[in-house]
């Protein structure tokens, strides 16, 4: 859950992070309540729905409304996380939260991430160059 984790930490700790990126991230954990032992960490979605609601990135976007945090979200169109990424992108657009969003052919695999990494590195390169100029 690296993509979700990166966005989660950046949203919660904008005093530490100026930018964050997600590649093929599970940016809404609720549809995956039975996967990856998430319920061992925050409880089952039936018993502790509030934990699932407050700890999923898509519900934390109010923290990004200042548009200070630079964000890049990237997901392959054949990735099992594509729907939650599209939902996040749509919600960010409706809330007018600045972000870069990329969809390309690909799955949730190393081939996709190797290609995606180039775009992520360019995004962060530009972020750090702009930050140095300020």
Describe, in plain words, how this protein is organized in 3D.
It is globular, with a radius of gyration of 15 Å. It is α/β, with parallel strands linked by helices and 134 residues long. The protein has helices at 2-12, 38-42, 49-54, 82-94, 110-133; strands at residues 19-23, 70-76, 100-104. The protein is 44% helix and 13% strand. The chain is built from 5 helices and 3 strands. The mean pLDDT is 92.
Distinctive features:
single chain, 134 residues, alpha/beta, Rossmann fold, 3-stranded parallel β-sheet, 5 helices, 44% helix, 13% strand
Summarize this, please?
With 134 residues, the protein is of the alpha/beta class.
- The CATH architecture name reads 3-Layer(aba) Sandwich
Number of helices: 5
Could you describe the largest sheet, including whether it forms a barrel?
Answer: 3 strands, parallel
- The CATH homologous superfamily name equals Alpha/Beta hydrolase fold, catalytic domain
Shape: globular
CATH class equals: Alpha Beta
Give the strand tally: 3
Unreliable spans are none
């Amino acid at each position: 859950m690296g993509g979700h984790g990166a966005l989660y930490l950046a949203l919660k700790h904008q005093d530490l992070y100026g930018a964050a990126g997600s590649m093929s991230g599970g940016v809404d954990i609720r549809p995956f309540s039975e996967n990856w032992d998430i319920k061992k960490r925050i409880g089952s979605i039936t018993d502790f729905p509030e934990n699932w609601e407050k700890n999923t990135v898509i519900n934390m976007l109010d923290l990004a409304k200042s548009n200070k945090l630079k964000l890049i979200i990237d997901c392959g169109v054949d990735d099992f996380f594509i729907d939650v990424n599209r939902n996040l992108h749509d919600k960010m657009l409706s809330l007018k939260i600045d972000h870069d969003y990329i969809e390309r052919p690909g799955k949730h695999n190393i081939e996709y991430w190797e290609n995606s990494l180039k775009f992520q590195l360019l995004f962060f390169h530009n972020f750090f160059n702009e930050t140095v100029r300020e």
